């Protein structure tokens, strides 16, 4: 047992002393005045009043929200591209968990049919009201054979416009000058990961991902991006930017804006701040569950989106386009895709951690939008409910990774500076393949 303690001790020594003993590669990257800046607290939307409100004009989408809309690099070999929810729902019926018809399967579904509660007739003739919580958009086609609507549409080359794939923007006032811009990205299908060549596992029909850009007095301060129920938070200045011409009411102006970049992973559409391989199981143990991102087609969601202002209760559509499709679909608490297939369905498979087809996800308003933290919720081990915004982007690993500089990786400053490589590998093992790095990275990233 002694070597364990020795290893822990060595690790702590390495973790604690090396960064300070060495040249600090981060000198100059931080802006000193940033540290001194003390910003006022955010206010939960339910507690806002006229004096603390940041958005004075009711229902207004500020221009800075559009100027800082993230650009999304989709994966180069992606098969399931974004799509339009208004078109998507026409391929579905709404059923309850027992498979009863909630909506009439003889009529085409529209977004107006998605609502908070349903009054429907059970098989035995009883009429009843149910909440949408336990309902499922249930595909009329066999989704296992990739009907065309399941594939979505690629962005147009050059502009990044997806004509049949509007993003969904929800703006929330967080008081004291703070404003949150939630960008939702909808894909008709989530293709899960392969584990050691087998899979894919955890597939589902319908896939909602989102990012949050948090502004203080019109200046972007933070960005958060979703990945597998969790996500990652960054200071806005940390993420990569792309120069674009500013648009005003759909028209290009000669002004240049620096837009943040996020990367959408192959199949799962989980969002990351860099290209490469991203482990999303227990940190770096074996990396069997990985996401892959690269610089595939670039999607510009600011060219086509449905926009709303939400105050925690009421939703205000931003234009006639949103009024036409109605807002009831935002209150729909059901699943945006089929229920997990039963075990005896020929399309279903099981592996020790996951089914092949699982339940479709819930929609945008189920993502804790009134949150004060950047994170929507916390993992069980995160009992102190921390959600630190990283100062440096987390680099991807593997073949697609772009190792043009060495900073910012987990253990990056520690391990990447270790040479020769065999010694670095040794250190990786000594740090339990990076578990200690992960913990350190969590607090220092
Ligand atoms: C807040 O402002 C609105 C319009 O600007 C006004 O109608 C309302 O009475 C004000 N509420 C309070 C509590 O002052
Ligand atoms: C749902 O409605 C369709 C068409 O009316 C009918 O054929 C089917 O049996 C119904 N399903 C259930 C579970 O009631
Ligand atoms: C019909 O089924 C529901 C739920 O299974 C039950 O609560 C209700 O009592 C039944 N109604 C009749 C008339 O049997
Ligand atoms: C169902 O809800 C409607 C309106 O929300 C209400 O008028 C009706 O009485 C309810 N019916 C039952 C059986 O609860
Ligand atoms: C699967 O099993 C259920 C009972 O558990 C049965 O009702 C159903 O018919 C079965 N389906 C198939 C496709 O065998």
Automatic annotation (TrEMBL):
A GO CC term assigned to this protein in UniProt: fungal-type vacuole membrane
Entry keyword set: Signal
Keyword Signal among record annotations: yes
Signal peptide: 1-15
Keyword Signal in annotation: yes
Pfam families from the UniProt entry: Vps62
Stored InterPro entries: Vps62, VPS_Associated
GO terms classed as biological process: protein targeting to vacuole
Protein name: Vacuolar protein sorting-associated protein 62
Organism: Zygosaccharomyces mellis
Gene: VPS62
């Amino acid at each position: 047992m002694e070597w364990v303690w020795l290893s822990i001790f060595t690790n702590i020594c390495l973790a604690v002393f090396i960064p300070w003993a060495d040249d600090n590669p981060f000198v100059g990257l931080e802006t000193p005045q940033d540290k001194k800046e003390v910003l006022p607290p955010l206010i939960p939307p339910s507690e806002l009043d006229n004096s603390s409100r940041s958005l004075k004009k009711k229902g207004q989408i500020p221009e800075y929200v559009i100027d800082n809309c993230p650009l999304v690099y989709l994966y180069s070999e992606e098969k399931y591209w974004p799509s339009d929810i208004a078109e998507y729902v026409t391929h579905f019926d709404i059923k309850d968990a027992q498979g009863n018809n909630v909506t009439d399967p003889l009529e085409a579904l529209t977004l107006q049919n998605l609502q908070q509660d349903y009054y429907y007739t059970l098989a035995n003739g009883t009429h009843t009201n149910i909440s949408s919580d336990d309902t499922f958009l249930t595909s009329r086609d066999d989704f296992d054979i990739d009907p065309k609507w399941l594939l979505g549409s690629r962005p147009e080359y050059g502009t990044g416009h997806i004509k049949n794939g509007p993003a969904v923007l929800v703006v929330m006032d967080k008081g004291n000058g703070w404003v949150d811009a939630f960008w939702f990205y909808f894909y008709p299908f989530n293709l899960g990961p392969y584990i050691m060549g087998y899979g894919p596992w955890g597939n589902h029909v319908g896939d909602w991902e989102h990012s949050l850009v948090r502004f203080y007095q019109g200046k972007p301060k933070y960005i958060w991006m979703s990945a597998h129920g969790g996500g990652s938070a960054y200071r806005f200045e940390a993420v990569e930017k792309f120069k674009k011409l500013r648009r005003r009411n759909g028209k290009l102006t000669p002004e240049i804006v620096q837009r943040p970049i996020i990367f959408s992973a192959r199949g799962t559409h989980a969002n990351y701040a860099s290209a490469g391989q991203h482990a999303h199981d227990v940190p770096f143990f074996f990396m069997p569950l990985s996401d892959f991102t690269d610089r595939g087609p670039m999607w510009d969601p600011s060219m086509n989106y449905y926009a709303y202002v939400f105050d925690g209760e009421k939703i205000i559509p931003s234009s006639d386009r949103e009024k036409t499709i109605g807002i009831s679909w935002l209150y729909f608490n059901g699943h945006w895709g089929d229920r997990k297939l039963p075990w005896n369905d020929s399309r279903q498979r099981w592996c020790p951690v996951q089914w092949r087809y699982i339940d479709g996800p819930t929609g945008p308003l189920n993502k804790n939008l009134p949150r004060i933290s950047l994170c929507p919720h916390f993992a069980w081990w995160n009992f102190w409910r921390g959600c630190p915004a990283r100062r440096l982007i987390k680099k991807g690993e593997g073949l697609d990774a772009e190792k043009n500089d060495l900073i910012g990786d987990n253990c990056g400053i520690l391990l990447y500076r270790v040479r020769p490589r065999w010694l670095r590998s040794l250190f990786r093992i000594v740090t339990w393949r990076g578990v200690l790095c992960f913990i350190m990275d969590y607090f220092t990233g």
